[in-house]
Amino acid sequence: MFSLLADKLQDVFKDLRGHGKITETNITDAMRAVRMALLEADVEFNVAKGFIARVKEKALGEEVLRGVHPGQQIVKIFHDELTALLGGDNEPLNLEKPARIMMVGLNGAGKTTSSAKLAMWLKKQGKAPLLIACDLHRPAAIEQLATLARQVGVPCFTPPPGEKDVLKVGRLAADWAKEQPGNVQIYDTAGRQEIDEPLIQEIKALREFLQPQEVLLVADAATGQQAVSVATHFHQALNITGLVLTKLDGDARGGAALSMRQVTQRPIKFAGIGEKLDQFEPFFPDRLAGRILGMGDIIGLVEKAAAAIDEEDAKRMEEKMRTASFDLNDFLAQFKMLKKLGPLENILGMLPGMSNLKDFSVDEKQMKRVEAIVLSMTLAERSNPDVLNARRRQRIARGSGVSVTEVNDLLQRFGQMRKMMKGFGKMRQMMSRPGAAS
Ligand code: GDP
Fold it and tell me: Which atom of ligand 1 is nearest to the CA of 272?
């Protein structure tokens, strides 16, 4: 997610932090590099320009340059401005009755998928969502929504076959919804390859009829420079209330996110981060800014972990990490926990300093081998890996069907990991210090 921008910015800031003293020239150079990075990430020209001007003005302030850690302070200014550009705080959905949400956007942006994802998310929040198919142009869309609704386990309205009058469908759907035990209605509307007038008129009419509390523009994060015109058109015609940004898991350069929010002045409310129905989350500007700047998204990670992991287990693990009494039994237990958290690459990106691990990929087969090695050890060996002499290592290699070198490698990496944990402990202390920006 935003990896290109994140890489570039982290290089610029690494350089900036390297200077004990910072001059105006350093800042001007850094801002030029940042502007290039933003443009390359498809941030619209005027958005990038305004942003740089604001950061530069603050960074050139007397206090910053004379401060003890000017580099860090500039990163902090940048973080704050980036958060503001992404929208400041997370804005929750307006679910006042009748709690109607219209999903709009171009074809392929992810409207239908996001409608179902949103239903699933709302269900987890204790709501009773209803899905309503109003895309009368793409015949497959109705069936797609109905199938997804079954997966999520929520009722779904499908229009009478062949019906082309969207207002009639809206009326039928609204009547149907009244009879259902639901309290949030999600309307999946029609899209096009490109914006055209008939499409806009149709959705506009539906909007006027439904008077929804939310009109969410669903947009693909990889939209590129077209993003500004898409957002402007939809917003002018429909007065959207928020954005859902999809496919943030891809190689998207992500500039669309920054530009769309800026030109509409509407919050990005949710982010789609994968094809699966649960890969969808509320959008938090400050967390994303932190991730772009390589400061990690510790809160997001903790929330993810809390949802997937038993609290008692997590507490015990934390204690072990803190006191560095982590052994191979814990390693194995943690392996199992990690599996529950989903793809490892995503998790690593949330850790400070890890988002720029280039070409890092996690090989699931390799993970199974590692697990097999640990499982071939006795409990005593796992608690005290120091007893693992050459003979024992040979036995373990045989038992797990790997070479002795692989066993040695694992033990060596485990040693490094323990060291890293001590490092994380220190980093946590640093991060909890006020004003520490990295
Ligand atoms: P619609 O035409 O706007 O209704 O788009 P769809 O909901 O049919 O989505 C188009 C494609 O994008 C589908 O293959 C989805 O699985 C995929 N998609 C939607 N959201 C995401 C996302 O957040 N990440 C990824 N990787 N794919 C997504």
Answer: 23
How many angstroms is it from 139 CA to the middle of ligand 1?
A: 16
CA 210, CA 212: separation in Å to the nearest integer? 5
Domain final residue, candidates 237, 261, 292: 292
Read off the pLDDT band of 433 (50, 70, 90).
very low
Residue nearest to atom 13 of ligand 1 (CA): 110
Per-residue confidence (pLDDT) for residue 59, from 0 to 100: 84
Angle subtended by helix axes 3-18 and 285-292, to nearest 10: 70
What is the H or E stretch that residue 80 is in?
helix 70-85
Number of domains in the chain: 3
The domain boundary, picked from 261, 292, 323, lies at: 292
ipTM reported for the complex, 2 dp: 0.99
Could you tell me if residue 95 is inside a domain? no
**Annotated binding residue at 384?**
no
For residue 54, the enclosing domain spans: 3-85
Judgement on whether residues 120 and 261 belong to the same structural domain of the protein:
yes
Average pLDDT over residues 93-122: 96
Mean pLDDT value of segment 5-20? 78
| Residue 425, annotated as binding a ligand | no
Q: 276 and 319: one domain?
A: no
Helix axes 24-40, 70-85, angle to 10 degrees: 30
Q: 227 and 331 share a domain? A: no
310 lines ligand 1 (CB under 6 A): no
The answer to whether position 437 is within a domain reads: no
Q: How far is CA 288 from CA 29, 177, 295, 383, in A?
A: 25, 36, 10, 38
> Among 143, 195, 246, which residue has the most ligand 1 atoms within 8 Å of its CB, making it the best to mutate?
246
Which atom of ligand 1 is found nearest the CA of 135? Answer: 4
